[in-house]
Design brief:
- The chain has helices at about 115-125, 160-165, 170-180, 185-190, 215-225, 275-280, 285-290, 320-335, 340-345, 395-410; strands at about 10-15, 15, 35-40, 65-70, 75-80, 90, 135, 140, 160, 230, 240, 245-250, 265-270, 305-310, 315, 350-355, 365-370, 375-380, 425-430, 445-450, 465-470.
- By secondary structure, the chain is of the alpha+beta class.
- The protein folds into two domains: about 1-70, no CATH class; about 75-505, DD-peptidase/beta-lactamase superfamily (Beta-lactamase, 3-Layer(aba) Sandwich).
- Strands 6-5-18-17-16 form a five-stranded antiparallel sheet, with helices on both faces. Strands 1-2 form a two-stranded antiparallel ribbon.
- Strand 11 (about 240) and strand 12 (about 245-250) form a beta hairpin.
- Helix 1 runs antiparallel to helix 8, helix 8 (about 320-335) crosses helix 9 (about 340-345) and helix 9 (about 340-345) packs parallel to helix 10.
- It is globular and about 75 Å long.
- About 35% of the residues are buried.
């Protein structure tokens, strides 16, 4: 059938394909040797009908039709982690182990692109910025350098809040944010998440994710956002036992688990079965009174302790205020930003994350999480070839992530991210980032829950359309690709501009 071959448009070049085939004969002819895969047609059985070999999708073996396929040339990786203890729940390092033994989830050192921006923003938040701080999204002139960073699509929106800038992945805001926060401070901050300092370039390109990392390393870093701000270690093996059932190795006793602040040892916890979690979240008269809005969900403990067993407690690497702020900002990415398809497709309000696309669309990332899971999807060619013009993360990694997480989250009820105890709902002028007053028009007012109110008066700083930076040496740096919404702010703190030395060229 034409639906089974229509994806196979004629190859013209790396960035061009022919028109969509209209007939099967446009793609294959008699005598061609092709690869196909079976497609099992499933349909819901009538209520009360018992599952049989023929109507059970799990056991059905007879395909209804065959689809044209091919071994993909592009590589990919996917990691699913438990943010409470770093346990890897699922990992995929390539299409097929016998086709390629290179594990892209653990071995592929790639640029993270804009998926690294939450680290930049976290450092800035801990350094005095707020989600409602306003930073200029405008071109930057760098004398003596041929690096001209730009936003994906080449558009600029001027002064904008950090909320909007992260959701729409504005490159120029990230660069200014890194400059004002300080490169040494930010690099030191990033090492808390497990990124080796040697893999982080000591210059402004770091703001666009020009370091190198692996999907597992990114999942480990994002786990701190998901679990309340604590550092956990990725591990693949929980237990080893011999044929007699004797335990030879038990990772749970050595694995750091999230327990809270100022705790050195905590009870070992294991995930509950999905059925148990669902039972606890069943609507009752008491629960109905607590759940007033359709998007609200009950706080459900998803772990149970194992009596008599203890494990080392994870240490905090992000303060609770910064963690709450960055998670809220990353929820904007999945709700109205570059990964809006996530919330639209999965219809959940407990997902946050960040997209990432590197120069010339060579790497595509989406790092997303819920309170229960962290999942990282990556795609790219092993030889660093381009994925193709316009192949941004929203078109490549995000659909991968959604397809996988639809199955993971299918029977998992929504769970709220942990909130701070003391939050203030304040009205902010979107144009100035200050508290709204009588002169502020209603259309310019944003309501934002903040851990503290923004400053009453802005510090003195430039808000020019073009700014200049001084370098002691030049560098050719890639334009990390990202894409371009809604304001939500406090003026940025003023820092003395630094003369930044770029010791080497970055390609």
């Amino acid at each position: 059938h034409i639906d089974d071959v229509k994806w196979a448009s004629k190859f013209i070049s790396a960035n061009r394909r022919g028109s969509t085939p209209r007939r099967v004969s446009d793609v294959i002819v008699a005598g061609d040797i092709i690869r196909v895969r079976p497609q099992v047609k499933t349909s819901s059985k009538p209520e009360g009908e018992a599952a049989t070999e023929s109507n059970n999708p799990v056991t059905a073996t007879k395909p209804s039709h065959w689809q044209l396929t091919q071994i993909p040339a592009v590589g990919g990786a996917l990691v699913l982690m438990d943010p409470q203890n770093g346990a890897i729940r699922a990992v995929m390092g390539g299409y097929d182990f016998y086709h390629s033994k290179f594990n892209r989830a653990t071995q592929a050192m790639r640029q993270p692109g804009s998926s690294f921006k939450p680290i930049i923003y976290s450092a800035a938040l801990s350094h005095g910025f707020a989600p409602t701080s306003i930073v200029n999204d405008a071109p930057i002139s760098i004398p003596g350098s041929n690096w001209q960073p730009k936003n994906f699509g080449g558009s600029y929106i001027g002064p904008t809040t950090l909320n909007e800038a992260l959701a729409k992945s504005r490159n120029l805001v990230s660069i200014r944010l890194l400059r004002d926060t300080g490169i040494p401070y930010t690099i030191n901050y990033a090492t808390r998440f497990g990124f080796p300092q040697k893999d982080l370039p000591p210059n402004l390109t770091l703001a666009l994710g020009t370091g190198i990392t692996t999907p597992v390393q990114m999942a480990t870093a994002y786990a701190a956002f998901a679990n309340g701000g604590f550092k956990v270690d990725a591990h693949f093996i929980n237990r080893i036992q011999d044929s007699n059932g004797q335990i030879l190795f038990d990772a749970t006793a050595e694995t750091r688990q999230v327990c809270g602040d100022d705790i050195k040892l905590c009870p070992i916890r294991k995930p509950k079965k999905v059925s148990e979690v669902l039972a606890e979240a069943e609507p009752t008269e008491e629960n109905d009174q607590k759940t007033k809005a359709t998007h609200e969900v009950l706080e459900t403990p998803d772990y149970e302790t194992e009596p008599g067993k203890i494990a080392p407690a994870a240490t905090r690497i992000i303060d609770s205020r910064t963690q709450y702020q960055i998670v809220t900002m990353m929820q904007g990415v999945t709700q109205f930003g570059t990964a809006a398809a996530v919330s639209k497709t999965l219809r959940r309000n407990d997902i946050a994350g960040k997209t990432g696309t590197t120069s010339d669309e060579r790497d595509s990332w989406f790092c997303g999480f819920t309170p229960n899971y962290v999942a990282v999807a990556w795609a790219g060619f092993d030889d660093m070839a381009e994925l193709g013009e316009g192949e941004t993360s929203g078109k490549v990694a995000v659909p991968m992530w959604i397809s996988f997480m639809q199955k993971v989250l299918k029977e998992v009820p929504e769970k709220k991210f942990k909130k701070l105890d003391k939050l203030q709902l304040v009205r902010i002028d979107a144009k100035t980032g200050l508290l709204a007053d009588d002169a502020t028009t209603e259309t310019d007012i944003i309501e934002e829950k903040l851990a503290s109110q923004p400053e009453a008066e802005p510090p003195k700083s430039e808000q020019t359309k073009t700014e200049k930076f001084e370098f002691t040496s030049t560098a050719n740096a890639p334009d990390a690709q990202t894409a371009t919404h809604q304001p939500t702010a406090r003026p940025a703190p003023v820092r003395k501009r630094e003369t930044v030395e770029i010791p080497e060229q970055i390609f």
